[in-house]
Fold these 4 entries.
Entry 1:
Amino acid sequence: MLTGFRRLYGSHPLHLLTLIAGFALFGYVLVTIGPQALWNPRTWWQSIIVWFAAAIIAHDLVLFPIYALVDRMLLLSWRIPVPIRVLNYVRVPAMASALTLVVFLPGIIEQGALTYWFATGQTQDPFLGRWLLLTAALFATSAVVYAIRLAPARRARPSS
Amino acid sequence: MDDNTKRRSPRWRSPLRGLWLTSTLGSVLLVTLPVVILTGLLSYIAYGPQFGQAIPGNVGWLKLPTFDWPTDPSWLYRLNQGLHVGLGLILIPIVLAKLWSVIPRLFTFPPARSIAQVLERVSLLMLVGGILFEIITGVLNIQYDYIFGFSFYTAHYYGAWVFIAGFVIHLVIKIPRMWTGLKSMSMREVLRTRRADTRQEQYDADGLVAAEPGPVTISRRGALALVGGGALFMAAITAGQTLGGWTRHTALLLPRGRSRGNGPNDFQVNRTAFAAGISPELTGDRWRLTLTGGPAPVVLDLAMLRAMSQHTAHLPIACVEGWSTTETWTGVPLGDLARLAGVPDPASAFVRSVERFGAFNRATLQANQVTHPDALLALRVNDAELSPDHGFPARIIVPALPGVHNTKWVGSIDFRTR
């Protein structure tokens, strides 16, 4: 009986029951929030459902391909014959810099300046400079660590 | 196994992907995400749904049971929101790493081979869409960027429930796989293995292990350190907005990481007097405080309030956005005002600001929030008169109350017996 169900459905009955319960809860969320809140007929892109879908697309089909491509390009450096490979000394500060750029983008590009000023009484002026300094500090730290690691490697091969 | 090998595309190159890595990252989120969920749902209760002032209203069964939000400890809401926003930010690198670890599954072809897989894939839209939507709306909100146009509260609250549905489905279905994955390699062994000795995962029933792996550019322990380091880095540059003091400056890129000066009123402002349309004639000599609810309204001017017995309390203001700041407030206890109004034992109090427009120009306080000895109509802060931005001539300050319910520029208080 259980094998028959498995053959037809592709998994255990509990799998199906869990999913139905979850979808029913999702349905209740949709009914409770109501269609007016989900869709903005005047400015379509300022709709909750559009942002929900866009969040998935932005990560899976934009952000991921971009960072994977950049990493593939950086990976070309792997074959360069150097005493210590530079790849991770670029990757780590680049990841930290990119993470802060994406998360704190509104302040860095001064988006929402008016609501920001109303809320805080301040401007977003410092953030671009701070992000650039943070990026500089991250790469400089990486360079110092790389130089320290490189020193013994160079001593070991004075001819190079 | 053969089947999976066929399905795997050669374009996935990382030698680190596999069930163990995914399970390890997943187990961290399994423990931490419920904290973010719970603190979010608690914040809704802290806003007072029993008075219809939690946003969004009318959420049906989609909330925790309503209870009177406590006033002790005074840092309760500060802790709640510090955890909700702080942990939410800290988990961003871990969520991104978890998504990276399973992304080959997104592009498998054919996408599903049974009804079970079709349904499970649809449920993943709730899980992945839910977490990304919550991160994006939350991150925009704490930076006052309302480009999305819809109500943040509505979107973030219902978005959370979509995520909860997806998360619970995922847990029920995947926890056994996670256990298998965690047991498939020894963490101690992983932590001992250098890059040169790092091999692909042996066990692969899920098609995550690359068919044609590229070079090992980082050890598995190195990758874990990178993700954990990313989380610590986020903590280091955001926690200061909640902790305050000298650490505030470490919140480099956040609105509430900035100093405003050293004066008694130079702490974080939420909504300036200008933004609220507060003019000197509203708060000047003609300003009066009206207390209602008793036999007859009681009208007080600022001099009369100053002549009343004053109480001083060291209390935090904690915003839903996660930032907080603790100051020393002096003013008239709300309980004294209730007695003066002729309602010594109020069930609630409705506070109204002289601010004409704005969603938070009013708030209803619970009985415990009125009668707590430290619950004040503050006239002074840090031994100075309140500045216009901080609510001159008088503002509410109540222990553990969400920041925006500490109404500024108070004009009237209605003490209610129901």
Entry 2:
Amino acid sequence: MNQQPWSHWIDIDRIQALHLEGLERYAGLRSAADLPCLESALGAAYNAEIYSMPEVDDETVISGLTFCGYLLFYIATKQCWSDGSKRAAWSSAMWVLATQGLTVDASDEEA
Amino acid sequence: MAYELDIHYEGTAPGLAEHRLSLGAFGPALNQLVFALRRIATQLVKNAVEGEHPKTGRFADPARNLDIEIVKINGNALGLATRVAFHDVAQAQPDLPLWADLPERAGAELLDALDRESKGQLSNSAVRKYFAELPEGITKQSYNFHLNGRSIRKVDIGSVQLTTLPVGLAYLRKAEGDIVGVGFDPGRNEVRVKPESGSLAVLGSASEQVDGALEMRHSKVRTLSVQTVKGVRLISLRRASDPAFKFDPEAATKQIFTRWDNVLKKLAK
């Protein structure tokens, strides 16, 4: 399998699984994912991560937060499926945080 | 053998209607385009020799004289026929395999970056600056990079959708060390941690975290904090001897769809 620099956070298979889970739980039209669209969203989010990292050579800095935010934005706005993109965007972002033992501390309304 | 880059601008920017190149309007942008090309070229060289050559920087120096030279200005709005070549061929050591195809690789990557950045996909900050420096009123741009009539890469751009990165994005920091102090009401709630190496970290905290820090003050601790433009905030505080976090995919899926059930329901509407 082709390892991408973001694979330790999330990959296309996982995003598709989260999207499918969202459709099964909350209904919606099933459609095949536009894979180049998803690859583009992941690549763009990773680029944002790389370009936003502080210019310090410091092993205490942990990457992933910007990737998470941008992934949420790109999957929600790119419409890589005909239905369920926003659910997939939110659950994918939460997944990225979960890989680091994190979640969002906010009410449902704030989220 | 010369690599050529044909650039074509259309629109109402100064000079376009008269088929003239206004240096005042296009000079800063074209300068930025050359900078972007050189930056790509030096990065390609660094990637090729890093770790194997003791003076990577000096090895990459010749890549910095890769140039875009305007050969001719064509009619039909504004067309620039340019040549992508080393400014100083002798210095560039063209016989070395690394240099032979450097103009082609750098030029092709430059056009990739132009394509991506024009769509708002972050790729190359120097190319983003190039677009930002272009004068207003350009409605169409095209770039054709070719060698002896063989097109290597061609990009057509309509309206440019530039992405601007917000400054001061938050990022995470981890540390392991000793709690050397805390602050609490009526002052600021904070936990002060002295790492094994590096300077003292003063972490803004919730009152419960301050209480937790007091209980752990004789143990080595592991902290995770978020750095924002407003300061540093403690996210997690654990004893260093506690088992390290282990990600469980099944538990994560369950937690996401349980905790965010209401939010996902709303998003489905």
Entry 3:
Amino acid sequence: MLPFPLPSLLAVVTTLGVVLGVVGILLCVRVLLVKPEDLTSSRPVRLGIATVPKAAYLKLLAFAALLAVPAAAVAVANYHVFEGVEEVRGCAGCHTMWPMVNDMQDPQSDTLAARHFRSRWIAERQCYHRHSDYGLSGTANAKMEGYRHLARYVTRTYPEPIRLRGRYLNRNCLNCHAAMAKFEQVPSHHTVGDRLDANRMTCLNCHGLAHPSPADRTPGSSGYARLMLPPALREPR
Amino acid sequence: MNLTVQAVGAIVGFLVTTLFVVHPTPSLMALFVFVAQPLFLIVGLMYLKRVLRELRERDVL
């Protein structure tokens, strides 16, 4: 048992990212200050265990400033692009998603998202789990969709209420539910099983809304102001 | 070794990247994804081109 709590991955990524950014900027400034005569200088420069001519030292510096440190900084920052967006806070970063997040955390709501959240049926990364299709291609598609959403959001080229582009695959529900005895006990699930498998009908036909209705998410509607409050993110209770 | 353009480009990339790491908002994410990353790539390619040219001038390659 350690005498101190381990820092979260997010804290490590943030610290490392800042360190790399500052080091990168300082190295680049040093590269900018290189004079032509420095490159012909044979004055030795001590680098810990090695001593190299100043010209070689400056070339190593340029390599670090323009290739090595940028590669490391991009790798670290991509944590937010590839991992951070899988968290609910990643979705809640865009105000267009606030109605979904607020509703999901609302203990009084009867939407499927809210029921899954308060029952802890999905313990973490609730949005990503239900909106990324299974398999590698599903994950890749979700990321590509994320880039499209990002571009549309920052250029303000989206209409409200936002709508899901494409189809929500029943497989995302069935992957968990189909194996449950409770699911198998419902006769209608067997009656429409083929249609559900082929995505010719959706689970929402019988099980209600997944999120607040488009009418509630339309600016000016009665529920809009309540749904558009900045969400306070919390764990399921 | 005149790498002024590359160094300035990298500084811009580092500034955007650092801001994004500290404060990952949608706007900064867009700047990082669509500006900083391509900028780092361009800077890296320009630098490699310069290195290759210098090596060829010295008959190393």
Entry 4:
Amino acid sequence: MADWDELDEALADYTRSCNENERLRKMQRDWSRVLHFVCSDNDVTFSMTVDHGEILSTPRGLEGVPDIVVTTTSETFCDMFWGDLNPVQKYLRGEITVKGSQEDVMRLDAISYVIWPDS
Amino acid sequence: MSTPTTLRRSVGTAAATATSAGLAFAAIDYLGVVSILAYAPGTTAALAIFIGGLIVVLVSSIFSELNGLYPSAAGIRLYLGRAVGNRTALSVTFTYMTTVVLVIAADAFLIGAAVRHVLHEPSALAYVWIVVLLGLALAANLRGVRLAGWVQTIVTYTVLAGTSVLSVIAVVHVGGAFRQPFDLFGRGSFSGIQAIAFALFLYAAFEWVTTTAEEARRPQVITRALFIAPVLIWIVSTLFALALAHLVPYDTLHGSATPQLLLGTAALGTVGELWMLALTVLTALNTFNGGFLVASRFMYAAARENNLPRPFAKLNVNAVPWVAVTSLTILSGVVAALVFATGQWLMLVSVGAAIECAIYAVGSLCVVRLRARVTSERPFRMVLARPLASFGVVLFSALFVATAFADPKDSRRFSFAPFLVIAVLGLLSSLYVAIVVPRLQRAAQARSAERRPTRRPSRPGASGPPSSVAGD
């Protein structure tokens, strides 16, 4: 089980990778969303605010009204934000559950695919 | 844990019902009614559509329970995988997705034929219209243009209301005559069964609304849509069938790809013809928007899962899986052109109806198996699930046979052609899953072995590598 410190470290790396990727920023230029993340194995929750493809903040706790809610284990979140797993495989096995539009679900995976094409 | 339950944008009952009805009511449904009339002549078609609607209540219950268990766009993979195994699930899903191509191809062909008919152009120009329509759909999809939810809702209710109003005008039209009421077995011993099987096709694809479960305000929203949408389709289809039976002789319908235009002309002349043309074009908005979206995103996910070659996951600058969308367009165009060249448009109805019946049989089987294997609570539980779902397996298998061997062009004959098309599709799908998918998976594993080391820093006491790695 990963704690908040590990998640925060992973999120910082993910944020940097996303914001520094020119192609991703262009691809997500019209994508502004509030995401909520819920760890199913502990009480940790966190949010992510994306504005025109740029990740603005990833605070602990649930902030704002979400467009997308992602639920899985803290370990899976950590691996996902470090780019060490393929989110689609977990999703198709029912190990990651998402509330939100199909398009947003695909966009979320597309981020991982663009910044880590070998994932 | 405080988990929020309300999304900023979520789907309510009216929108979900519109999605369900919009997915089901495509231009090909107008031809579907003609196929029913081939086996249930005159007003008997309304009886077949009613019985088909009663059977759809069973389908609604089955998919409500399955959706309650796996409320996800990936639901079909999850419940099929857990009920019949991953390999079979993949084969079935690939075959199921071919119906999307058939419906897109059918709509491209039917709208091309309708526009050409109204403009009195030479028949060969239908090819041009097919290319133009699919080209527009391709361009819109590649640019990431999608109908807003509220536009889709308005389009769907406009098509349903417009078809109903014109049908009512046609029914009260002076000069027509109702023919052959309640003659369900008048075209042979099996004609009634075949008519009911084709009636089921009118409702086909309404269950795809379950792929929007993740957007639903509450789980009950999808269940309500699954029960309300078939009622709307029943009303519209019944009115349309009665109107055709009242005003247009079957001999005229028999060789036409545009029965809705014939009805419009018979009821209101040129105004009626243009009315029905406008509605036909509107149905394409739903088909090209929803169909392309469902199928291309399925292909993207399959490629990301290493079940399709990796190029199908390639994204363009608008975050659209462009290889998947382009391949779908080309495939649909080829099918539409083949249908036009051979004049076998009713074959699309037979193949589509048979595949849907097979899917309903498999869905029933999933309910039987998952009742035994998965004991978790669901928001919807079928009453008498095991006996009713077992009955569904038998019923839908029988209806599959009834449509797979039907010849809607000559109701007194049987035809192997639809079955052969489905058998080839199923065989190709199974061979692909048995031979190609393992190779793709091996290649992915090889790439995974060669790829960069894991990025996540190790921590004291951590139990080895990440819980899952790429390509696993």
